[in-house]
Amino acid sequence: MHSHPSSPHGSQEPLFGLDDLPRDPAAEPGPPGGAFRDSPQARRLLAVREIHAEPAAAASPRGRQILARFPDARLIEVESHWRIPELHGNEGNAERWMRVKRETLVLGVKKTLTTRPNGRSADWIAPGPSNGCALSCVYCYVPRRKGFANPITVFTNIDRIVAHLGRHVAAQGPKREPNQCDPEAWVYDIGENGDCSVDALICDNTADLVRAFRDWPTAKASFATKFVNPDLLELDPRGRTRIRFSLMPADDSRLLDLRTSPVDDRIAAAADFLDAGYEVHFNLSPVVVRPGWEDAWAELLRHLDDVLPQRVKRQARAEVVMLTHNADLHEVNLRWHPRGEDVLWQPATQETKRSQNGALNLRYRTDIKRRALADLRELVARHTPWLGIRYAF
Ligand code: SF4
Fold it and tell me: Is any ligand 1 atom within 6 A of the Cβ of residue 329?
């Protein structure tokens, strides 16, 4: 017999049958100002038909909000959000994976809350409010642990995540030494395993974190995104959340960033997000070395310089991350998107490294990477001299 996961109240059994849950859409207050997440565009990206839920997650206030939001979705009880083989495996074709990402949600309770030191992009990696993504970037590392079709798992115990972070922030005290993450604030990455802008189409987890950070003057939230969600403009972050729009040349993005907002839309949104109280940075990532890549990046940088207003340029910084690929992901991608692999899989310029969890990762050879990073720094210096590079990796 299997036991059910512990609920936040310590019970080993579901509190009540899933069918008894209220499914009234009016139960959930939407964000003020008219919600993008209710628009046809948002409903196309995420047309939830099936929700796999741990009983404790479904019974929680956040779980109820989500169930109320998708009243027509079929509810399936699962013992653990982490093991749902029929969802997470690599079986099936791309059409099926995309459908799983679009039509399926998982609700779980995050059991272990740990904040890990990072030091590159952020000072700390926070326990994220989700794992998985409805977008489908072909190089994405997030599904590697669960299989290719990794739909969004929403962690419903967001109150515990916020309380954990509050304690962590308090324990650090003020930041005494400026570093590459930020001159003054401790930076917490809140979106390591998903896209917080997409999560905000589902529930208020992202909003809760943004609101929490605005009351912590020594800390700052940070997340990378490839999706423009105008609902985030309503959250009043008061400068305590850094949104990092990921950018790559449009041709690469069309080939590799499936289901994301077009790169031009991400750039065009920068000023709106700044005016709404966010700090706006850019992730130049992943940099994919292919014939003509320098010209394509030069064009992208010139475009940034042309269209971004001064006030965005004044505060913008960038991270540069070269592509890391993975042998298993390559095999999977070959079955459904071989054109992407033509540029991602370049064994002649890449070297393999076995990671701690046994995965075989590919990175550009050291000499090639060093040269590419130097070239990119030069392009940035020439075309967007206002864009300081916080780190390049
Ligand atoms: S947006 Fe991020 S988390 Fe989502 S598929 Fe792309 S790389 Fe992965």
Answer: no
